[in-house]
Amino acid sequence: QSENSDKSSAESDSETEVEQVSVYHKLxxxxxxxxxxxxxxxxxxxxxxxxxxxxxxxDSEGSQEAGETDGGEEEKSDVPEQKEAxxxxxxMLGQEQADGTDTSCDPSHGVIEExxxxxxxxxxxxxxxxxxxxxxxxxADKRDGNPFKQHMDKELEEKExxxxxxxxxxxxxxxxPRLGQLTFSSALEKHKPLKADKEVDVKQLYLHKxxxxxxxxxxxxxxxxxxxxxxxxFTPLQRELFCIMNTYRDLFYPERNALTNGEEIRYAYCxxxxxxxxxxxxxxxxxxxxxxxxxxxxxxDDYRDQGLTRxxxxxxxxxxxxxxxxxxxxxxxxxxxxxxxxxxxxKKRFKGEFGSDPEEKPPNxxxxxxxxxxxxxxxxxxxxxxxxxxxxxxxxxxxxxxxxIIIASPLGMRTIIGTEGEKKRDxxxxxxxxxxIIDQADIxxxxxxxxxxxxxxxxxxxxxxxHGVDFSRVRMLNLNNWSKxxxxxxxxSALQDPxxxxxxxxxxxxxxxxxxxxxxxxxxxxxxxxxxxxxxFRRLEAEKITSVIDTRFQFFIDKVLPEYRDAIMSHTLxxxxxxxxYVRLRNYFKKEDLNFTHICEYTKKAGVCRARRFFLKxxxxxxxxxxxxHFYKRxxxxxxxxxxxxxxPTYSHFYxxxxxxxxxxxxxxxxxxxxxxxYSKYDAQKLAAVVGIDRTAQMLQSKKNVHLFVTGEN
Length: 714
Known about the structure:
Strand content: 5-15%
Family: Belongs to the UTP25 family.
Oligomer: single chain
CATH class of the domain at 147-292 and 324-339 and 431-439 and 452-517: Alpha Beta
Radius of gyration: 27 Å
Domain UTP25 C-terminal: 525-709
Largest sheet: 11 strands, mixed
GO molecular function, one term: U3 snoRNA binding
CATH topology of the domain at 147-292 and 324-339 and 431-439 and 452-517: Rossmann fold
Shape: elongated
Subcellular location: Nucleus, Nucleolus
Organism: Tauraco erythrolophus
């Protein structure tokens, strides 16, 4: 894992080297570009019309690219452009940013304060409010075995902290009925693996009121008649996930699927987050009442019940639509019945800024189901919002230092955390985060993974300012700067990836330990290829993971490309996952004067139409094609006869999708079609997702090229 982790930051590090302080000011300017209609992008007629647009654009594009140097310099010259496009998903999809979004700065008018709700400050203050006596919530939380109290009240010793900081974790395996193969790891030996609860009584989960009564109703949509009467409120997946969450262990679940289980997972972690916040706040309010009633001069050390700053839960999600759904789940979980609606401040504003207009979407775009599920609703990726919850009320747009929960995108976090040297930057509010939830982590690989790494480096640090905290109420764990050892991290992704693994392995220090789901794919996406096609997997030998990038490039230009230079091998699409590899190949193809065209995530619409037309007609022999373009657009590229996967795709189903594009070629099945895949021993996870675990084991043991023939019935 450590080797894979090193590779993980290779691309990110090269991005940060050239990052200037003003990059984000420039970036925010790109959020205001007007969208182009995409309603006809799949129509061949519109392709030819748009392709006929003035060639001056193409000429200027060519002259701009000609200025780029070959070798190591091209990455640097392209990075600012990459930053802008990678960070703005809505730019890829041609959607406007909602009016009044929380833009933190404007290049023309300097810094602008984003909207925060100042009006309800005293109403939601933890310092000046008290537990309502009739609620009885706090007494319920004092029951023996309450996981919240067990976790937060545990006093670590210096030697235990030293052990966690220096010694490697010990791990053990366990198999659960629904989650499958689990790896439990901990630096403290005494934590043994959990056993899966076959049945869960909601009353034994120590849920805070009103969640005990609202959860079964709210979650009803996911339940089937198959659910046992003794376990009426959780799906089998939710039950096992919540069983782990409720022990406050870190969790990595890499099988989230936007089409199948994404929403039931979202409901489960929302229940856990809200349960945590309600218990924490009830403890503070109860102690407020006790302090008010105690005699003057009494020792106050019994009331250490909070962190150095108020935010307890940070939820990282990719799009505004996700934040909208989370807030709706919170509201439904807090409303006991139709008569007892909770008071939600700024709800109308929130709906306007985070909702979407169904009529905005062009009606005749055809995309795969998984694409529609991921890019539903408002897909702006620059936002952050504070949420405060107090008893029967919720405050949206709470200032961060008065918030219990912060919901944000990685870019939204990056622009407030800032970089060294910036005057206006702030990350003190991350000092006492007790639960970090990162959902849909795979999408951040397609946005900008460096933002996630930047966030992880700034979480649970000692604050630079006191922010008016009453130190007599702060837990010793926070004063000792041990917050990171108590923080629970919940990481959900659609896939296993070295960069995601790296965050889980290197940035999570929970004293209770970690649980990772580690199922291996038995088949692979190659079984979904429906065209008859020979697949040749060509192995390249790299001595260490840091040399893979250069080794792959050299292997490609020395061994693979010469076989395709002949005019007979026309209509060759080269699929390139990494943008930096794409730039390197593009510059090499130019230098060698090869007949090629290229499409990446920044190519303008007219340029995309031209490239597709040239490739289809055979006027250009090669098409360089980036993975991010495919992720954000999912166009069908017609005319492919030869495929080269420069590297295995990040999403395994992209492999079969790209292969199946060949059936869009008018001539039908052609005996001369080819598919070539480059891989190394460091690509084990991606390889297994494409060809299955058994074939992967054979391919990694053998040093020969592997030929597979898929008939379309595999």
